[in-house]
Amino acid sequence: MKRNSRLSLALHTLGHMAGQPDRVQTSAEIADHAGTNAVVVRRVLGRLREAGLLVSEKGHAGGWQLARPPSGITLADVYLALDERLVAPAESTDASCCSVENALHNRVANIMADVEENLVDELSKTTILDVHHPAKAVPVQTAPFERKEPR
Amino acid sequence: MKRNSRLSLALHTLGHMAGQPDRVQTSAEIADHAGTNAVVVRRVLGRLREAGLLVSEKGHAGGWQLARPPSGITLADVYLALDERLVAPAESTDASCCSVENALHNRVANIMADVEENLVDELSKTTILDVHHPAKAVPVQTAPFERKEPR
DNA sequence: AAATATGCAACCAATTTGGTTACACAAGCG
DNA sequence: CGCTTGTGTAACCAAATTGGTTGCATATTT
């Protein structure tokens, strides 16, 4: 595994669950499917539960289940639940000596925040039902944008 | 510093250079501006040079300079030059036992690749001249997209 | 009570990362 | 020619991140 394995694991699991929303799955089952460890699964899925995407039950017949119909869970929900900002760094706001540098720093931070926001918007267009759906391709339609000249 | 410090450093430096395209800057100067180390600067900027965004000269009056007019360098160029895929993991294509799981895995990978591609498209709309430009706000105009119902 | 499953803390090994030092090489200048 | 300046690169270090693992408490069903 490498970068984004948590997001990958989350999408994989939710996509699987979207196919059988009523079935309760144990972390051990999920770990088998995903080729990882049960504790790791509970770690990642725990954050999704905190975000209200999943519910978990303890005890003998316990396990994990979707908290909502799969058509109501978008990739943005999953991404935000994991709380991993891919492009935008955490705020530092440390005032540098030179105001010019400070302004540039803020501008870079703003740009990255905007890109992050756009990423979330894009993710919100796809649900985990789309992830599960076997036949159809990904509905991420690229918005028409002016093509820049390569040179 | 934390995640994306390389991208942040690159954008910061290029944004600075966009203001004075003819000036040659040493890595020590850049490191001072960015609050980091000269070797780190050369590490990051070296990848930008490999991508043809910067040129560097050794020796007495050496240093770093833009290889192209700043209006021709987009954030996508910078992002791709650094070779850090934010959302898409590297290809593994290891065939799992269960074909259903394998298909799901591929679908998740495809989705993440699509998101990555869309991210690059979004980044290509902004040039480092926009990063430098002091007054204007970030021109990342969000494409009109159908608002999904929150529930 | 026994079995099952989550919740959670603690720890480990591998990887990543920024920082630092050291040194070779190149280019201009006295 | 020798000195200075600056890039290029390797080596190493410390900190942070991360997935994996073990152990144990707790809850729930049988």
Summarize it.
Two copies of one chain form a homodimer. The first copy, chain A, is mostly helical and 151 residues long.
Can you characterise this structure?
2 copies of one chain form a homodimer. The C terminus of chain A is likely disordered. Chain A has 6 helices and 2 strands. Chain A has 151 residues and is mostly helical. Chain A has a two-stranded antiparallel sheet with strand order 1-2. The first copy, chain A, is elongated, with a radius of gyration of 19 Å. Chains A and B meet through helix 1, helix 5 and helix 6 of A and helix 1, helix 5 and helix 6 of B. Chain B binds a DNA duplex (30 and 30 nucleotides) through helix 3.
Q: How would the global form of chain A be characterised?
A: elongated
Spatially, the strands of the biggest sheet of chain A line up as 1-2
Radius of gyration of chain A: 19 Å
Distance between the termini of chain A: 38 Å
Oligomer: homodimer
* Content of β-strand of chain A: 5-15%
Quick one: which chains have the greatest interface?
A-B, 58 and 57 residues
Structural class of chain A: mainly alpha
Count of discrete alpha- or pi-helical segments spanning 4 or more residues of chain A? 6
Q: State the total count of DSSP E strands of chain A.
A: 2
Largest sheet of chain A: 2 strands, antiparallel
